[in-house]
Amino acid sequence: MPHIRREQLAGMGIHYMYHSFDYFLQCQEELGFKTIEMWCGRPHFLLDDQGYQSVPELKKKVEAHGLHIGVFTPECAMYNYLICAHDAYAQKKAMGYYTNGIRAAGESGAKVMLTNCCGGDWNEDPERTFERAVDVLSKLAPIAADCGVTLAVETVRPEESRMIITLPQLHRLLKAVDHPNVKAALDLTAVGVAGETVKQWFETLGSDIVHMHFADGRPYGHLVWGDGLHPMADYIALMNEYGYEGYLGQEITDGRYFADPREADRRNFAAFEPFFA
Fold first, then answer.
1. Residue 212 burial by CB count (10 A; 0-12/13-18/19+): exposed, middle or buried?
2. CATH, domain range 6-275
3. What is the pLDDT of residue 111?
4. Is the overall model pTM greater than 0.90, yes or no?
């Protein structure tokens, strides 16, 4: 029987963006979550290139609900701070933002911080975007090592970037950066949109996959499980086969869930219950 540990399932607050952080934590506790992937967007946690909210206060609040922060995820697609920003001023701001994200992640006890390579101009040579990604991640990697954090780089959809949107591109990026604190994150939506398979990812990257965004899709969507077409049991069986023990971040982003995110999480959590070891 395919199985996961309950602690691997990591609730995420993106679809609670119109609700308070306290409400998000209350819902996670009541529904049975043990871990969260800390989405760093307002109104939940303020992080920018100048600083960030009190992490000790954040941890105290999270732990009061019987939860812990497994993964730290600065908002890295909608905000102005993008890894592959092309102009010098934006690059400086992005470096400050992600450096602060790494430091906050380390203070929170999270061992993984998720990011991606958004920010390149779509009308420029993709190789220039690739070079900037390598440069920025190479600069962030030693900072992450000092903080005890591993950067998990995900691929994204072609609507979000023109580079690092496929498995071969990410594999090439990791080889170019070549640092033990820069690894891969597998996002089921991006994988499906690219026409790739989870098995291909595990065969190519193996233990270099340190995080997953594990949501349903068609393949687009980032949906609650049961609202898409992904074969959950098959994917969990593959995770077991390849020894994946990382977190399964519940990145649910479709606007249909924003009005009642608790109900979305209730249905989502129920889909996982048969697989808890």
1. buried
2. 3.20.20.150
3. 98
4. yes
